[in-house]
Design brief:
Blueprint: H1 3-24, H2 33-64, H3 80-92
Helix pairs in contact: 1-2
C-alpha cells in the first residue's frame, strides 16, 4: 500500500467519523448556533482522533507483512507439514 493510499483510507475514516458525530449531535438541525458549533467542534475532534488511530493501526499492520513473500504461490499446507514432523519425532522416541 502506497503512502497516499494509506492517507486516503485514514482521511476517509476520519471524514466518516466526523460527519456521523456532527450529524448525531444535531449539526444540521434548527438549533442555536452555539450548539451547532459545539457539534462541529466535537466532530472535528472525533475526525482527528480517528485519522490518527486509523493511520497508526493500518501502518502497524502493514509492517507485519513481508512484501517479498507476497505474490508467490503456496503448494503445500502450512500447518500440516509441521504437525507431521512432530508426530514422526514422537513416534521415533525423541
Amino acid at each position: 500500500m502506497r503512502p497516499a493510499q494509506l492517507l486516503a483510507v485514514a482521511f476517509g475514516a476520519a471524514l466518516f467519523g466526523g460527519l456521523i458525530t456532527a450529524m448525531s449531535m444535531g449539526a444540521f438541525q434548527a438549533i442555536p448556533l452555539e450548539d451547532v458549533l459545539h457539534a462541529w467542534s466535537v466532530g472535528g475532534i472525533v475526525a482527528g482522533a480517528s485519522f490518527i488511530a486509523v493511520l497508526l493501526i493500518v501502518s502497524m499492520l502493514l509492517l507485519v507483512v513481508d512484501p517479498n513473500t507476497q505474490g508467490g504461490t503456496v503448494d503445500e499446507p502450512l500447518l500440516v507439514k509441521k504437525d507431521a514432523e512432530r508426530a514422526a519425532k514422537k513416534s521415533s522416541g525423541h
